Give the backbone structure.
Amino acid sequence: MTHMEWIENKSLLRHNTFGMDVYARWFTEVQSEDALRNTLARAGDIKSPLFILGGGSNILFTKNVDGLVLLNAIPGMDVVQEDEQYVWVKAGAGVRWHQLVEYCIEHGYAGIENLALIPGNTGAAPMQNIGAYGVEIKNVFHCLTAMDVQDQLMHTMYADDCAFGYRESRFKREWKNKYVITSVTLKLNKKPDYNISYGAIARELENMGVKDLSIRAVADAVIKIRMGKLPDPAVIGNAGSFFKNPEVSADTFHALQEKHQDIVGYILETGRVKLAAGWLIEHCGPAEGVSWKGYRKGDAGCHALQALVLVNHAHASGADIFELSNRIIESVQQTFGVALEREVNVY
Ligand code: EPU
């Protein structure tokens, strides 16, 4: 039996976009289903706790991992099926998400151009049903393959099995730590059906002087918008939106509007309202008349251009970021009576 090398006491600094210098007791990287099977079996034999890591772009480490960190680096991008209108693209879990987006743009496969530049790997994308600018992966999801951690058997899951919701899936709930996703297959469109309903995209396309829409142009607009307000993790540690946008009833929304005329909310099909958490965070703060937006204590801060994003300016600890997130949750609760929920996983 072959197994990949296990490295002892490995720093995870380069494996999490928050830039936390925590250590893994053991660390290994798998690049194939066979290697994954062997590694899971071995970890099971010695009863080692297991931590599955992808791009590390949605995790806040507050402590070392006393177990095996398994970096899922399974490669590959292929067209597995095709008809006149659609193409099914299968990608390995270890493929960087944006690399898959670029591959699809190059080949003229539409459907994920709005999801350009989202950090992280393809395998993690369905877990939290990544979304941006009016599109979620569930809109183009066909199926995924996953290995059961316990018995190493392979399973195929379709959209209905995954119970996708806003930044939600079964993999975050009852299937947490039960499976390792090995590949994701998307059903993409050869005849683009652009979604530029999100105001910022339409404005950006106009700024860019785009006359004829194309997959490339939409992706470029998204890339520009993201680069304009989201901090680049290579420069300043962060994991994108730290909180979810909370949902409230229409009545609650109207009551909030009476007190805060310019509060931002989007009415959902259900009649409930999704509030812009960034707005809520911007409109309260650590002291009277001070906003959280741009706030900084030591190296832990709230991004100056997008209040929903918490940042590690250099040497903040996971605990520093976590504490700041607690203060923000409390402050939003006190000011608006709204409960914020973290979007980032905390370890
Ligand atoms: N806003 C403020 N102040 C802020 C930030 C936002 O007032 O500091 C208000 C503005 O009115 C703005 C509105 O909130 O128009 C929406 O802001 P934005 O377009 O930046 O989107 P978001 O709701 O803050 C969500 C996703 C992002 C995604 C964008 C675009 C969540 C948790 N976040 O952010 O996803 O890129 O929409 O679709 O749903 C991520 O999940 O990591 C992520 C970056």
Remarks:
- Residues 318-336 form the longest helix (19 residues).
